From TrEMBL:
This is PQQ-dependent sugar dehydrogenase. InterPro entries: 6-blade_b-propeller_TolB-like, Cyt_c-like_dom, Cyt_c-like_dom_sf, Glc/Sorbosone_DH, Quinoprot_gluc/sorb_DH_b-prop. GO terms for molecular function: electron transfer activity; heme binding; metal ion binding. Keywords: Heme, Iron, Metal-binding. The keyword Lipid metabolism does not apply. Residues 72-163 form the Cytochrome c domain. The keyword Nucleus does not apply. SUPFAM superfamilies: Cytochrome c, Soluble quinoprotein glucose dehydrogenase. It holds the Pfam family Cytochrom_C. It comes from the Bacteria.
Length: 612
């Protein structure tokens, strides 16, 4: 069930007479499957506004919820759940959506049925509980109207089979959880950031997000060019305020899939530093599970949700206005879930020809949701590819599959251990979605957190950034529920984790939107690392000079002005989730854009904030 709108832990239930009619306690037969009913009782909350019938039900009324315990029904429900819901929900953790363990003991079957089928309709009805969920998770679960009534029934049977486990005994050893990990609030600075509208990206969907515009890249060389990709498969060349289609990856790779969203699709792209000479271009994209044998796999007992593919393309005419080339696959990775896949691919722009790092490709690979599904052994290791940043030589051939090279300068390439992966540059990331080099040469890696901390790290070869044992500068119970963080243990230094240089908690924002150190023509912005929160659209900054290992730089927030009018991105987009991203174009111009509506803005000024 994609989206962040299910039940957390509110004592709130609706009348069971809605949705499917329930035959309390009576077995039935459906498609030859014996329907053995499991019955639960729930208390009605009269404050629901899902419809007039609910409001008339007294608070003391009890309802009977019948769920099938037939093993075939539950198995079919599991399969439908895994295909549609696991990107956002699990039975172990609160993540993108709530932890669903025991959900059938907290809400009525009819409410659950209606919500699964058409959450937006329940929300738009003014339903109190649904509204609270939207407020907490900042997203709306899409309608699943294509599911048949039987499939929804199967899902509810599977949900009912997943009851909460007993509390992990390790939890008591961790101390008191921190309800507010970072109590200090991010202050508003006196700076007003002025933005002007540039254009609206071509819409690639009729549903939000309307355009999944993501990464802006400047191609240097004899002719500087600017590109911007949409995760649904399009790569545009940006010429002034025009976005002209350069590449449609679905035409080059028919197995390409952009669904179910959450960073799946056309993930990233990079031009070789010698692109104008050798025509080499790199992309990542997603394909269905088992499309082809993967280079990086795990035990067959763990489901494969999809595969990420890294491709090298050769373009005979690098200056051509439209993509034309042939590709070869460099590597393929299986993923436990749709989330946290292969993120940024990029080259170090400061590496000079002839230096050991010149032409080496960096690849951010998330944990694929493994930690949240209790497969933490796949993460935070120099023996597995997940939860890492890789560094490879795409022109070499000494990798296991013979399709790329493992640089001798990598931290584990010369350790004489056949079990370690020489490709690894650093480990311990949940979702290393952006890799960027500041003007002073610092490598910055943003990492989107789970339920508490968002962070930016300085990249160091061989460093371990802690996930899933750490989130930011806090301890995480990765063997149990991961929705709380705890103070670091007294012996923390023995673990040798590298901690972030920027972090904020979830009462400030929900997902780190990485940005850039400004080096353009606006004096008040020079030297500031400008970034934001994906969900709320708040825009922050820190002084780049304060980004130092071993400390967190103090964050300040801009006031925003759109075409002369003070506003927020929530107000501009008209939605709770803005899907905010940053780009750097020609002449170091800073762009801010939102997937929600596809609008692109350029920063055109910064001044002391006076009343306007």
């Amino acid at each position: 069930m994609n989206g962040k709108t299910f039940y957390k832990n509110y004592n709130w239930i609706v009348y069971a007479g809605l949705g499917f009619g329930l035959l309390a306690g009576l077995p039935s037969c459906r498609n030859g499957k014996s329907q053995v009913a499991a019955t639960t009782t729930a208390v009605i909350n009269p404050d629901s506004s899902i419809n007039a019938t609910v409001k008339q039900v007294p608070a003391t009324v009890q309802v009977q919820n019948n769920y099938s315990t037939d093993e075939h029904t539950i198995l079919e429900g599991k399969q439908v759940f895994q295909s549609n819901c696991t990107a956002c929900h699990s039975f172990e953790q609160k993540g993108i959506g709530p932890n669903l363990a025991g959900v059938t003991s907290r809400v009525s079957k009819s409410w659950l049925t209606q919500f699964i089928s058409n959450a937006p309709a329940v929300i738009s009805s003014g339903d109190v509980h649904a509204t609270k969920l939207v407020e907490e998770y900042k997203q709306v679960m899409p309608a699943f109207t294509a599911l048949t009534p039987e499939q929804v029934e199967d899902i509810t049977a599977y949900l009912h089979s997943q009851q909460p486990e007993t509390e992990d005994p390790n939890t008591a050893k961790l101390g008191t959880p921190l309800n507010d990990p970072i109590p200090a609030k991010i202050p508003k600075s006196e700076l007003l950031l002025s933005l002007e509208a540039v254009t609206t990206a071509p819409l690639t969907s009729n549903e939000i997000p309307l355009a999944r515009i993501n990464t802006m890249v400047v191609l240097p060389g004899k002719k500087q060019r600017v590109f911007l990709q949409d995760l649904r498969g399009k790569l545009y060349e940006m010429e002034g305020s025009t976005l002209r289609e350069y590449l449609d990856i679905s035409k080059e790779r028919p197995a390409f899939i952009p669904t179910p969203g959450l960073a799946t699709g056309f993930g990233s792209y990079a031009f070789h530093p010698d692109f104008y000479q050798n025509g080499l271009f790199y992309t990542t994209h997603t394909e269905s599970a088992n499309t082809a044998p993967a280079d990086f796999v795990y035990a067959d007992s763990i489901k494969v949700a999809l595969q990420w593919v890294l491709t090298e393309w050769h373009l005979p005419n690098p200056s051509a206005p439209v993509f034309a080339g042939k590709g070869r696959e460099l590597l393929r990775v299986n993923m436990v879930n749709q989330i946290h896949g292969v993120q940024e691919i990029t080259f170090n722009p400061f590496a000079k020809p002839g230096s050991p790092e010149y032409g080496l490709l960096y690849i951010g690979i998330g944990d694929g949701g493994a930690a949240e599904q209790k497969y933490s052994f796949l993460c935070n290791s120099n023996k597995t590819v997940w939860s890492t940043v890789l560094r490879i030589d795409p022109r070499g051939n000494n990798s296991k599959n013979g399709k790329y090279g493992i640089p001798a300068i990598n931290p584990f390439a010369q350790d004489n251990d056949s079990n370690t992966l020489g490709e690894i540059f650093a480990t311990g990331f949940r979702n290393p979605n952006r890799i960027y080099w500041a003007p002073d040469g610092k490598m910055l890696i943003s990492d989107i957190g789970l339920t508490n901390i968002e962070e930016l790290n300085i990249g160091v070869a061989g460093a371990n950034y802690g996930w899933p044992a750490r989130e930011g500068t806090f301890l995480l119970n990765y063997t149990g529920k991961m929705d709380k963080v705890y103070p670091l243990p007294t012996d923390d230094q023995t673990y040798h984790y590298t901690y972030p240089v920027i972090q904020f908690d979830h009462d400030e924002g929900n997902a780190f939107s990485a940005g850039f150190v400004y080096s353009g023509s606006i004096p008040a912005l020079k030297g500031k690392y400008i970034f934001g929160d994906i969900v709320s659209g708040r825009v922050f900054f820190v002084e780049s000079s304060q980004l130092k290992l071993g400390q967190q730089a103090p964050i300040q927030e801009f006031t925003l002005q759109f075409a002369g009018k003070a506003a927020t991105f929530k107000e501009i987009t008209g939605h709770r989730k803005t899907d905010l991203r940053f780009g750097m174009g020609l002449n170091h111009n800073l762009f801010i854009y939102t997937k929600t509506d596809g609008k692109i803005w350029r920063v055109n000024g910064c001044s002391p904030n006076k009343k306007i």
